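PROTOCOL LOG
Step 1. Enter all chains and additional molecules of the complex.
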Amino acid sequence: MENKIKKLIIYTILAICGLMMVVPFLWMLTTSLKSQTEVNKGNVGFFSLDHYTEYSSPDGKKYAAKIVHENGEETVVTIFDKSGDIILHEPQPITIQLDEDGIKKDFTFTSGEYLKVDSSRIKTVKKFRLHWENYVNAYKKVPFGRYFLNTIFIALTTLVGIITTSALAAYAFARMKFVGKDFLFYLFISMMMVPQPIYLIPSYLILNYIGWIDTYYALIVPWMANIFTIFLFRQHFKTLPQDLFDAASIDGCSRFGMLWQIILPLSKPVIATASIFSIIGSWNSFMWPLVMTNSPQLRVLQVGLSYFSQEAASQTSLLMAASTFSVLPLLILFLIAQKNIIASYSSSGMKE
Amino acid sequence: MKKKSFSPYLYILPAFIIILLFRFIPIILSFFLSFFDWKITGPGGFIGLDNYARLVTDKYFWQSMLNTFYVVIYVVPFSIILSLLFAVMLNGIKKFVSFFRTLYFIPFVTSMVAVSIIWKIIFNQQSGLANYFFKMVGIEPLKWLAEPTGIWTMFMSNFNIALPHWMGGPSLALFCIIIVSIWKSVGYNTIIYLAGLQNISNVYYEAAEIDGASKKRQFFNITLPLVSPTTFYVMMMTTITTFQTFSQVYLMTGPPIGGPQGTTKLIVYYIFEQGIDKNDFSYASAVALVLFLIILGLTLFQRSTEKKVHY
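Step 2. Run joint prediction.
Step 3. Record the structure below.
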């Protein structure tokens, strides 16, 4: 019995903490579907109802209205149709009497966009509605399509590059003998842990010297080799039995042929792991593309989203919609392959 | 046959060229740059240690350093303790383990940019979730990312105690970044800890059980010592990544970025500001090199203590 209570407590704590991990994302989702007007009014909880002002005309039709002035039994309103155009206005200017500090004054609405109606015909309606149009509006506001394509293109080319260069180098490090092998390997490893901010500025100068600043090359080529992946591949290639290679050698298989025909088919899990790291890394990389590119058409998703967050700073709903569709592809990928992805991270963590 | 003798180098060549050009040379270059006067106008002359002399008297450098240390000092222990707790709890249950693991891991795989944007709005004074909750439970709303006052100053003022400025701790704005960093890193660390815990043989616990050791003692005398290699690894990784905090500063704070009153300016943002915004490549390199030395020093220190601790 005591054990059961303990279990219950553990599950409760884990569930509460788990909720804290996803609450920001849930809130992002619910905010992305709200009307900006409600958010600006401070209705920032997870759910809120939209408040509409509605005008019921004498012939029984209902219209969206905006109150311009309320004066007792008379209200001056603007009436809209569904597409937001102003309809139902009075051709003549409207004059109503205002009561200010006991002094009666005439006030005239001149532009002819107004309608004087009976106050009883105006009421506030609460309605729950999901504002999917936020997604369309955010997507239209800046060229997110282009950002997505840039990101996918860069992620895929980088991925192909990393797998190729790493397989070749790891093959040499794992299964060949040559002068300076250990020195080269440790030179590589020693640079693995150097953080990006250290080499950011000189890399910028080098790319600038080659003329690659503000080109796709700057976003792809420097990332086409990855020391950690070489290391990961080498560890795996070393475990393959020598007999395989001896047999292939007798059959006349060339050195390169062995890599292609023996090693790679036996390395699918480790290639998958490296691909996961590479894709997540490319997709989420921010500082490098921010520094190395200027043109809007070269923006990757993260940089585009960052600029959008400055432009649309006050439009929370749009911003949350943009954030949602930016994280969604990777999130879906993660949820589909979560078992493999987590296993990859947890196994590669302690391989030093 | 002769061809075979150099072919290993051909295999390494593609990776080697890229690593040479975009890792090795930049790292060496950053060292040289810091002794020159290289600005947007191009390479200037050798100026010896001038950049470093400037750095010593640069109060913004010291402020960024202090802010960065605050972040590291708060994020690393909290992230480690929380993730160890989560891992121990997950290790003790059978159902829903993979569900919780997935849940905790989501922040880690999500981009820092999106995460920063979400949290910036959560901490928004008017339209944020944080103040919404505060209002709901009747706590006075806070200024969060716009609050330059130290968290301990704020906390102690509840008891009418005025702390001296240096004891104030990180500003509330910086504390928001700390929260985000902990939240983001816990998932990965939990996974690593979980793998570490699963490596501990059950034999120890069975023996302890026979000896009548309590669960608490088992945790402190078996789990904690035997999981210490993982702790060292997690500590090192979290320290290194936390020192590099950039996106949160760039996206969550300001305008101006690093505000309020520079209390959220972190060292990597300072490198970015000096090097990229102001094109003072040499000075930025000097700052980067100091960061490098600190990280290197900490790594070596952690490695050497790790070697002394053996179970």
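Step 4. Note key features.
Chain B has 14 helices and no strands.
Chain B touches chain A through 90 residues (CB under 8 Å).
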